[in-house]
Amino acid sequence: IISLIAVAMTFFSLGAPFAGVPEVIAYAGAIMVLFVFVVMMLNLGPASVAQERVWLKPGIWLGPVILAALLLGELLYVLFAHQSGQAIGHTTVDAKAVGISLFGPYLLVVELASMLLLAAAITAFHLGRNEAKEQ
Question: Of the spans 24-38, 77-91, 115-129, which averages the highest pLDDT?
Fold first, then answer.
């Protein structure tokens, strides 16, 4: 989660809040919640709980806590350091400019990415069918 928020902070500091907000909402929020639900559904038993306690000693949290504090400091700096509302000396890229870029010179790339995602969704549906599991 911290690495995904770090990517979002990079977008914010470069003046692209339109890319930073979906990064926080979609990736750091929704996808990580899905990961938590998958881990909860696995129910690996007491042996895995004992192994996790050996791996996750209190000293191992020091690095992520320092990184999270640095990211919080960067967030507060970006939000409150500039009175004009702009990020660190750059102009803000609005949603209209992103849309014009995506459906202008990058239209072919956007369409290829959408076809790739459609193929991935069809493949996931095909692999997860009940008939395939019964064989």
Answer: 115-129
Per the listing, tokens 């493949």 go with 123
Question: Percent of the chain having pLDDT more than 70?
Answer: 87
Q: φ, ψ for residue 88 (rounded to 5)?
A: 10, 60
77-82: long-range contacts, CB 8 A cutoff, minimum separation 24: 78/9, 78/12, 78/13
pLDDT at 66: 92
Structural contact between residues 11 and 19, judged by C-beta atoms closer than 8 angstroms: yes
